[in-house]
Amino acid sequence: MKLAIISHTPHYKKNGRITGWGSTVREVNHLLKLFDEIYHIAPLHDGESPDSSLEYQSEKIKFISLKPYGGEKLYQKLSVVFTAPYNIKKISSVLKNLSREDWVQFRAPTAMGVYVLPFLKLKNRSRLWVKYAGNWKMENPPLSYRFQKWWLENNYQGSKVTINGYWKGQKEHILDFQNPCFDKVELDRAGKIGSEKDFKGKLTLCFAGSLTSNKGVDILLEALRMIEGKNEIAEMIFAGDGSERKKYEKSASEINLKISFTGFLGRSDLEKIYEKSHIIILPSESEGFPKVIAEAAAFGCVPLVSDVSSISQYFDGSKSFLLKKINAEEIRMKLDYALSERRKLKEMSLKCITDSGIFTYEHYLNSLKDKIIYADQ
User: Fold this and answer.
1) CA distances (Å), 25 to each of 10, 36, 40, 56, 184, in order?
2) Residue 201 burial (CB < 10 Å; 0-12/13-18/19+)?
3) Could you give the CA distance from residue 327 to residue 333 in angstroms, rounded to a whole number?
4) pLDDT, tens digit, for every residue of 37-78?
5) Please, which residues have CB within 8 angstroms of residue 365's CB and are 6 or more apart in sequence?
6) Which domains does the chain show, CATH number per domain?
7) Comparing C-alpha atoms, which of 159, 163, 101 is closest to residue 129?
């Protein structure tokens, strides 16, 4: 049984080898436990491969390159139209080689979804599922995202759709799936480290993700400027990168606090950040479900995060500090409270470790088998 994945996951060439966004590549590697062969159809970008990218672990996973699209400028936005004929041709060439017993997964939302979803409808694939990794309840989404959600919600593609979280009135073909982050061995290792974490001394805080205003970096820095408990903090670590990094570094240098910027990190280096951190802060404006929350929580890092999308369904107030208002003052208040409640922090940390098991690849693959691949047998 084969699987063809159609996604917008960025890929690069490094020393003649194909690499892709690390978290997606790890997931695809594990999907090989259910399929004999996998084709990943995704954009191939020029430029240097980020440290967060990985190679596939098997020659049974074959990469088929699409033309990249998108960007901030108008001509870049229009590139989704200009690249469509070429990309449809490449996708079609792979689907022609699949039997009716093989599967197709489309990963949404992405700009090319406006033509890929109708194309898959025309292909009449009976063995199809859509993984919607974005915020299913996003307020004021881009027009292309709004179209894709409307299409999927009405099931015009005729398939199961996996999303983050469960919502009132959710239709039967839309399923709540947890985003997998680690295997059982990695989870056990993280749990042992996290359970021994000491919350009595100065605490280390971390942020993991793109350095952008949408991810809340601006307001997080402002909150750190205002915080009363600066002497309770050993270090604030920003693990990630972005075009505005220099601006953020300058702003951080004006705060009386040890703040470091690491750039994008590979998984092993990012885990070292989780190992020594006590709180992970993600004040994003919108999210699907960020894997970094579950990854950090497995190491006993207590999330201080925006109450958006499905985050509170997995990390409620018993094991996280939820930002009802996404602004600097709210972050400041929650952080000062967290720093003053060390016993509560330790209890929340242990609960995070215990409840992280639903984010394993083993749990994900079992859900795929039971609810999608073999659901009708």
Assistant:
1) 10, 16, 10, 6, 18
2) exposed
3) 10
4) 999 999 999 988 888 899 999 999 999 999 999 877 777 778
5) 30, 31, 33, 34
6) 2-180+360-373 (3.40.50.2000), 184-357 (3.40.50.2000)
7) 159
Q: Does the N-terminal peptide bond of residue 109 adopt cis geometry, omega within 30 degrees of 0?
A: yes
H-type helices in 32-183, by residue range? Answer: 74-82, 84-95, 113-123, 143-153
What are 41's strand-pairing partners?
Answer: 6, 64
Band (pLDDT 50/70/90 cuts) for residue 377 is low
pLDDT at 287: 79
Separation CA 156–CA 168 (nearest Å): 21
> What is residue 312's three-state secondary structure?
helix
Sheet with 160-163, side-by-side order of all strands:
61-66, 37-43, 2-6, 103-108, 128-132, 160-163, 174-176
pLDDT at 376: 77
Q: Any residues with CB less than 8 A from the CB of 66 and at least 6 apart, and which?
A: 41, 42, 43, 44, 83, 86, 87, 90, 91, 112
Q: Is pLDDT at 237 greater than 80 in this prediction? A: yes
Residue (of 212, 182, 228, 211) closest to 360 by Cα position? 182
Report the mean per-residue pLDDT for the chain.
94
Q: Stretch 250-264: mean pLDDT, rounded?
A: 95
Q: Is the Cβ–Cβ distance between 97 and 270 less than 8 Å?
A: no
d(CA 235, CA 259): 6
- Rounded CA separation 127/7 (Å): 17
pLDDT at 111 over 90: yes
Residues of the chain above pLDDT 90, percent: 83
